[in-house]
Design a protein that fits this description.
The complex is a heterodimer of chains A (296) and B (285). By secondary structure, chain A is of the alpha/beta class. Chain A has helices at 48-58, 85-98, 112-124, 142-158, 161-168, 174-188, 193-198, 200-210, 224-235, 240-243, 263-289, and strands at 3-12, 15-24, 30-35, 62-66, 104-110, 129-135, 214-222, 248-257. Chain B has ten helices and eleven strands. The longest helix of chain B has 16 residues, at 84-99. The chains are: A alpha/beta (296), B alpha/beta (285). Chain B: This is Hydrolase 2, exosortase A system-associated.
Chain lengths: 296, 285
């Protein structure tokens, strides 16, 4: 399907944000808002978000990708994913203003963009958000990083013969040993309950568990961020309910790196997103077209 | 007050290209500035600095056009289909479009590989001034660095040389290679490899700004000899090393406020005032 691209300028508090809207010839009533993560602007690493938007627009979905305040071409002071709620709200508003027939919005985020999507839902419970596409969500804390390193690096290292050989011959530097010990201590540590209540990871878990729509989770095999997320979400009590989410679709891409930086991985993400959107649209629209009577 | 550019897609012979036009306040602009962005991820990382500089120049009375090349940023096309010559043509088209708007002096502002494109485009654009930010004096080392990304990714114990040779052979045979998410065509690799900051006599002046966080930084020997070549061609050249990070390659987005101030100050100094300037460099912090 043909599509066109339009530059949008919209406001968020005192600042102006720049976004690019990809408009399909015949748009579905679900639109996608891409939340950019990390040190990237709306095009994404190796233009991943440009190409994703074009692929989804070809499949009939309007897509808006934008720079939040202080990033890329948007004005304002630099900020990170923890302060992006007003920006996400402004983007959803902009999508609705320019695409009046779009009734549902799916938030699509990679890395801390995925975290920002969940934090937005936790803060606002915005009913316009009908679905979440979360890729390699960012949950890093000192403890989770230490646990990931212990699990995936040191475990492997401890099984290697030359490590023990070097250790006994005194060739393992004290620095490396003390790093291991520090990591072991930190990985065993638990945050106090008051810290837990306030942490962004816990708010992400709460948003995930309470989210009424579908969730697409994509995880890269060659990515510490994804491993850390899995480690965290499988061990932390707050995430147990999240894993049982009835509308969770999870796909692992063992050969992909953090940003899906080869053509094959990138195309798989485009395809998985597009396929998932197709399965979502009718379910999420059904109650709005004809309210269902509760049978029990 | 924040300056708001006009964002639009410009129709070019090669397809729609994403543009942002920061129009100078007031009646007659002091200059018309075309920003030529760097190569691949360097372009992404420097987007914030380019926007900050464009706003500062606009406030200082310049009109600035930010333009995404074929297959880059929000412009049409795939990176893998873009060629170096196509990028030169894009730059010339954007320069002519900007020139048609005003008779104020034309500036081509390049960052890294963007400086190489600016020089090639300047051949077709007539008299103009050049602003170089951390220029790469030739494209060859840049291509080499880019190919090394692939070699580093694929390397299994000392195979880098073999992999590099393989990549070059693939390119020479006309096949694209995919590196860090970018498909590099032969047309792009060849053009980049041959590009250099060859002096042009019709350029009025060059503002050459480098960045360093070390107080004792000096220009590289390649930069010194390139600058000498431009001066021999009769071009007024202002080199300066400014305090700041190499923001086009840092992990997080970084800003270099001293560079923004030095850029506005250098461009605003009349050519006569800088002609015959000594070659010594003052570190600006």
């Amino acid at each position: 399907m043909n599509y066109r691209e339009k530059a949008l300028v919209f406001h968020c508090a005192e600042d102006t944000l720049l976004g690019i809207l990809s408009v399909p010839e015949r748009a579905e009533d679900t639109g996608v808002v891409v939340i950019v993560g990390g040190p990237q602007y709306r095009a994404g690493s190796h233009r991943q978000f440009v190409l994703l938007s074009r692929a989804l627009a070809s499949a009939g979905y309007a897509v808006l990708r934008f720079d939040y305040r202080g990033m890329g071409d948007s004005s304002g002071d630099a900020r990170d994913f923890l302060g992006a709620n007003a920006d996400v709200a402004a983007a959803i508003d902009a999508m609705q203003t320019h695409m009046p027939n779009v009734r549902n919005v799916v938030l699509w985020g990679l890395c801390d963009g995925a975290s920002a999507a969940l934090l937005y839902c936790d803060e606002t419970s915005d009913e316009r958000v009908a679905g979440l596409c979360l890729l390699n969500p960012w949950v890093r804390s000192d403890a989770s990083l230490a646990r990931t390193q212990v699990k995936h690096y040191y475990t492997q290292r401890l099984l290697q013969r030359d490590f023990w050989y070097k250790l006994f011959s005194g060739k393992v530097a004290m620095k490396a040993l003390s790093g291991l010990l520090r990591n072991l201590q930190m990985s065993a540590g638990r945050s106090s309950p008051s810290q837990v209540a306030a942490s962004f990871q816990q708010r992400m878990a709460r948003a995930w568990s309470c989210f009424p729509g579908g969730i697409l989770l994509l995880l890269s095999g060659k990515d510490y961020t994804a491993k850390e997320f899995l480690g965290y979400a499988q061990s932390d009590p707050a995430w147990q309910a999240a894993w049982r989410h009835p509308k969770l679709s999870r796909h692992d891409l063992p050969e992909a790196d953090h940003t899906f930086s080869d053509g094959q991985a990138r195309r798989m993400v485009e395809q998985l997103t597009s396929d998932w959107l197709q399965t979502q649209a009718p379910i999420d629209n059904a109650p709005r077209q004809a309210p269902l009577v509760q049978s029990s | 007050m924040s300056v708001q550019p006009n964002a639009f897609f410009l129709d070019t012979p090669g397809g729609p290209r994403f543009c942002q036009l920061y129009s100078a306040q007031g009646s007659i602009p002091r200059g018309m500035v075309l920003y030529v962005h760097p190569f691949t991820e360097e372009m992404n990382k420097s987007r914030r600095m380019a926007a900050l500089q464009a706003r500062a120049l606009c406030a200082a009375g310049y009109t600035v056009l930010q333009f995404d090349l074929h297959g880059c940023g929000d412009s049409s096309g795939d990176f893998g289909d873009a060629t170096w010559q196509g990028w030169v043509d894009d730059t010339v088209f954007a320069g002519q479009w900007l020139k048609a708007k005003s008779s104020a002096p034309l500036w081509l502002w390049g960052l890294r590989a963007g400086c190489l494109l600016a020089v090639e485009a300047a051949k077709s654009l007539g008299p103009c001034d050049l602003l170089f930010w951390a220029p790469t004096p030739s494209g060859k080392p840049l291509l080499q660095q880019f190919l090394r990304l692939k070699a580093a990714g694929d390397m299994v114990g000392g195979q880098a040389k073999v992999i590099m040779e393989g990549l070059r052979q693939q390119l020479a045979a006309g096949h694209a290679v995919e590196i860090a998410g970018y498909a590099l065509s032969r047309g792009m690799a060849q053009g980049l490899e041959q590009a250099a900051l060859i002096p042009l006599a019709h350029v009025r002046r060059v503002v050459w700004l480098e960045l360093s966080t070390r107080p004792d930084a000096s220009l590289t020997p390649v930069a010194v000899s390139t600058i000498a070549g431009w001066r021999e061609a009769g071009v007024t050249l202002q080199p300066q090393i400014v305090n700041g990070p190499a923001f086009w390659q840092t992990t997080e987005i970084e800003e270099a406020p001293a560079l923004i101030a030095a850029t506005v100050a250098s461009m605003s100094t009349p050519v006569d005032a800088v002609r015959d300037q000594a070659t010594s460099l003052d570190m600006v912090t």
